[in-house]
Amino acid sequence: MHYSSREEFTGTSGRVAIVGAGPGDPELLTLRAARLLGGAGAVVHDRLLSPEVLELCPEGCRVIYAGKAPGRHALSQAEINELLVSLAREGLDVVRLKGGDPFVFGRGGEEAEALARAGVPFEIVPGVTSALAAPAFAGIPVTHRGLASTVTFVTAHEDPAKEAGQVDYAHLAQSKGTLVFLMGARSVGRIARSLLANGMAADTPVAIVENGSTPRQRTLRCRLEEAASLAEREEVAAPAVVVVGGAAALADSLSWFNPEAVQEMPWCRPVHDDETEAARALGARPGPQVRTT
């Protein structure tokens, strides 16, 4: 495929591509992302990625983990910014691989600013954001005629250094559309209490989607007044997307994705391409490699 709208990344040294890896299912990776990974000299990646995506990296590629688990960061954001600049100045084609879309609560903008200040050429490759994919895999159209004409994306994890939060729950509580909260695993109770305190109806439909698009997906449905207790009882874990609004109720009738039918299968190498594709057609997703001697 020819990308006439921009210079080819591969073969041009000292550049960085900030790439969205999508919501979790490796089949949702974009063609541009796959192409860049195949020609990368270094990949700096986040935590919530399928191992299958990293298998696209060529032999000899430097693969560097920069994930941020709750309370445990492999690298600070400042260190990641410095690393990207340093790798590019070594003359490497660098892929900064981020879950979802890098410009949707992914701090991709901060990384782009650091590269721009350093004079490092870069490009942005959008990814399928979990804000849309997780609801879709749960059977929730975030806009739907008669139910939701607007959709609002909200972070449930604001910068703790801020003196005051910027999320206006009084405004959100009056919304007649769909609210989608990202990074909401630990914040379901706070979200629900804040919306209720500002006048949102107690019977407003809510859906909590864990690990959307993956074999570990779990969808919990309830009313807003039940959300806090349900999340605590079910021990909701990251990554999770919280959907609030009338469209969330459609998960009951439009659910189409059966995670139990999608098996993560360990592979012994070598595996032929036709075997891999046949397994995918049956719902398998290749899991960790098992190396034999």
SSE layout:
Elements: E1 15-20, H1 31-38, E2 42-45, H2 51-54, E3 62-65, E4 68-69, E5 72-73, H3 77-89, E6 93-98, H4 108-118, E7 122-125, H5 130-137, E8 151-155, H6 169-172, E9 178-182, H7 188-197, E10 205-210, E11 218-223, H8 227-233, E12 240-244, H9 251-254, E13 264-268, H10 273-281, E14 285-290
Parallel strand pairs: 1-6, 1-7, 2-3, 2-6, 8-9, 13-14
Antiparallel strand pairs: 4-5, 9-12, 10-11, 10-12
Question: What does this 3D model show about the protein?
Answer:
With 293 residues, the chain is of the alpha/beta class. It folds into three domains: 15-128, 3-Layer(aba) Sandwich (Cobalt-precorrin-4 Transmethylase, domain 1); 131-254, 2-Layer Sandwich (Methyltransferase, Cobalt-precorrin-4 Transmethylase, Domain 2), CATH 3.30.950; 263-290, no CATH class. The chain is built from ten helices and 14 strands. A five-stranded parallel β-sheet has the order 3-2-6-1-7, sandwiched between helices. It has a five-stranded mixed β-sheet with strand order 8-9-12-10-11, with helices on both faces. A two-stranded antiparallel sheet has the order 4-5. α3 crosses α4 (108-118). The model is unreliable at 1-6 (pLDDT under 50).
The shape, in one word, is globular
Which spans of ≥5 residues are poorly predicted at pLDDT below 50?
A: 1-6
Question: What's the number of extended β-strand segments?
Answer: 14
CATH overall fold name of the largest domain: Methyltransferase, Cobalt-precorrin-4 Transmethylase, Domain 2
Number of helices: 10
